[in-house]
């Protein structure tokens, strides 16, 4: 029996059933013996995702824009241009928003539109993030961190679905010393259908890691590639970055942004904490406040 994927819409407070683009294909890949047998071909290299990327960069892909826009949750009316003015599917997928489509809130804000799950007081050496995972949070970093991972951490995982706005932003004023560190990996889907079958996605997929110095201490922003994501594009330059500034974008495919800080440095909103404790993701928008900074812990 197919498991229904539900999350809490923060704006309404209601439970919502997620509409999954490519639901049948995902269930074939992750819930059948033949599909799992094909994992090395489908997800073991960038080839398939790159082929898909080229397809969706082509003008011939314009016909797929309307299909995506028709899926519940796709706020195409926020796009800076009418649908017919986009030259390819990926041009729409990586769209900018209209001016003032988002308000940048106080404190720590969501870096992206997506579904947010918190893992508070996490241990770097324990499996992350779901029951059944074997790889640890430390392995998400592939030994590229020496500070935050020495103690307990608070981890916010924001999962983007294909219907979402796919540019991601800085969640807080910060200083960034270096460009993103790229860790090559696989290209599994990040949809819950895939996460239940393959919970080590975040430690095995391609990741790009940025270390930020903030008023909440050291923060890591981890952008995770996924099936169909031909490219993760970082558009920022190292230096002083302002909250709400664009950091980069994902091309076609479901993707994830992970924020990691020292445990207790942020006071996350009560509704998000409660939803996460109950096992539900919370639908958030880029720019809305999700936590306050604690200056003393």
TL;DR?
The chain has helices at residues 23-31, 33-37, 39-43, 47-57, 63-69, 89-93, 137-141, 192-197, 201-204, 270-277; strands at residues 6-9, 15-17, 108-109, 114-122, 153-160, 167-169, 174-176, 181-183, 207-214, 217-224, 232-234, 239-241, 246-250, 255-262, 266-268, 281-284, 289-293. The chain has 297 residues and is an alpha+beta fold.
Topology:
Layout: E1 6-9, E2 15-17, H1 23-31, H2 33-37, H3 39-43, H4 47-57, H5 63-69, H6 89-93, E3 108-109, E4 114-122, H7 137-141, E5 153-160, E6 167-169, E7 174-176, E8 181-183, H8 192-197, H9 201-204, E9 207-214, E10 217-224, E11 232-234, E12 239-241, E13 246-250, E14 255-262, E15 266-268, H10 270-277, E16 281-284, E17 289-293
Parallel strand pairs: 1-16
Antiparallel strand pairs: 1-2, 3-17, 4-5, 4-16, 5-14, 6-13, 7-9, 7-12, 8-9, 9-10, 10-14, 11-13, 15-17
The general outline is globular
Q: How large is the share of residues in beta strands?
A: 25-35%
Structural class: alpha+beta
The secondary-structure element order is EEHHHHHHEEHEEEEHHEEEEEEEHEE
Low-confidence stretches: none
The biggest beta sheet is recorded as: 11 strands, mixed
Number of helices: 10
Average the pLDDT over all residues and give the rounded result: 85
**CA-CA gap between termini:** 46 Å
Radius of gyration: 18 Å
Q: Which percent range fits the helix content?
A: 10-25%
Q: What kind of oligomer do you see?
A: single chain
Tally of extended strands? Answer: 17
């Amino acid at each position: 029996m197919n498991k229904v994927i539900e999350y809490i819409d923060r704006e309404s407070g209601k439970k919502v059933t997620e509409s999954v683009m490519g639901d049948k294909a995902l269930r074939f890949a992750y819930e059948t013996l033949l599909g799992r047998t094909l994992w090395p071909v489908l997800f073991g290299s960038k080839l398939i995702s790159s082929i898909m990327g080229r397809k969706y960069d082509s003008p011939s892909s314009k016909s797929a824009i309307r299909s995506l826009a028709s899926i519940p949750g796709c706020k195409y009316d926020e796009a800076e241009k009418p649908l017919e003015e986009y030259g390819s599917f990926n041009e729409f997928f990586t769209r900018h928003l209209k001016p003032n489509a988002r308000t940048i809130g106080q404190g720590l804000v969501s870096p992206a539109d997506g579904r947010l799950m918190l893992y508070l007081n996490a241990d770097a050496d324990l499996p992350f993030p779901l029951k059944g995972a074997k790889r640890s949070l430390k392995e998400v970093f592939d030994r590229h961190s020496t500070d935050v991972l020495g103690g307990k951490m608070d981890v916010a995982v924001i999962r983007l679905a294909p219907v979402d706005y796919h540019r991601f932003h800085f969640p807080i004023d910060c200083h960034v010393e270096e460009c993103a560190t790229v860790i090559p990996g696989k290209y599994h889907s990040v949809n819950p259908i895939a996460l239940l079958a393959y919970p080590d996605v975040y430690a095995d997929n391609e990741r790009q890691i940025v270390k930020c110095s903030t008023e909440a201490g050291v923060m890591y922003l981890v952008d995770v590639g996924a099936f169909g994501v031909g490219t993760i594009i970082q558009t920022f330059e190292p230096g002083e970055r302002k909250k709400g500034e664009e950091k980069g974008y994902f091309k076609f495919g479901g993707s994830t942004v992970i924020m990691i800080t020292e445990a207790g440095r942020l006071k996350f909103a009560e509704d998000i904490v409660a939803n996460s404790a109950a096992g539900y993701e919370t639908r958030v928008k880029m720019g809305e406040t999700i936590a306050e900074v604690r200056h003393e812990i």
